[in-house]
Amino acid sequence: MKIRILNVAIVLLGFVGLTACTSQPQQNSSSEPQQVKIVYTDWSEAIALSQLSKLMLEEEMGFEVQLKLVGVDSAYAELARGDADVFADAWLPETQSQYWAKYADSLEKLSILYPHARTGLVVPAYSRFHSIGDLKSSETTIVGIEADAGIMFQTRRAITDYQLSTVSLKNLSEKEMTTQFAEAYKRMEEMVITGWEPHWLFDRFKVRFLDDPKLVFGEQENIYAIATKGLEERFPQVVRLFERMQLSEKQMNSLIYLMSSEADPEDGVREWMQKNEYLVNQWVRNLRPERKKIM
Hints:
The protein has helices spanning about 1-20, 45-60, 70-80, 95-105, 150-160, 175-185, 200-205, 230-235, 235-245, 250-260, 265-275, 275-285; strands at about 35-40, 65-70, 85-90, 105-125, 140-145, 170, 190-195, 205-210, 220-230. It is of the alpha/beta class. Strands 1, 2, 3, 4, 5, 6, 7, 8 and 9 form a nine-stranded mixed beta sheet that branches.
């Protein structure tokens, strides 16, 4: 009788152990990796953060990632519709406030990826201008980026609030804007651009923000990772990753520098991951897929 009870107990323990082993949440329960859709804009830090997220999700966590280049309004709209999962370059509370207000009911903030961001008007260090108000009565052209970017809304408001009736605003891509700035800088010419930090421009040239006493551009911004509502239920590991991700000023600047130094941005980001292996390991700790055990 004791032997029979013992055998039954062993069977039950084996069943419980098997159940416990098979009930652990795994992102790769099927043979095909699950796909995460990340939207991004054509700005340096957005490309860097999105490529970093992609490489960690794919190479460290076993997901398949689809990156899609969009305008900033479309980034928020696609998240709100559920057509995309994550946008890793949301500048809040000021720069992209109009988009957040429009779609907030369908979105959620995952984390602050970078807490030291700033936007404003940027000039070479040698410029005679020191404040946005100094542009008054000058026939300056402020060279900016795409018209729907949050910083362009702020710049148009600055032109109004500071009564810069003789100042014009030009819309270009980020690449075109920085190329024109570099050419003007070489010739020691005056130039005013829409600028933001982090950006490789601050490492390559001696530049500064114009003072903004009316705080049209705000005092300090955060770069958030935001997601479509309900992402936690579908991809809890993805949410955990973004909750852990936060870069210091030095880490962010080196990420953007290495990315912009390579013909293929992914190569520069992968180099950054190798140089910051300890940090990456902390971010993905306990989030890697289960390794197959050799019996």
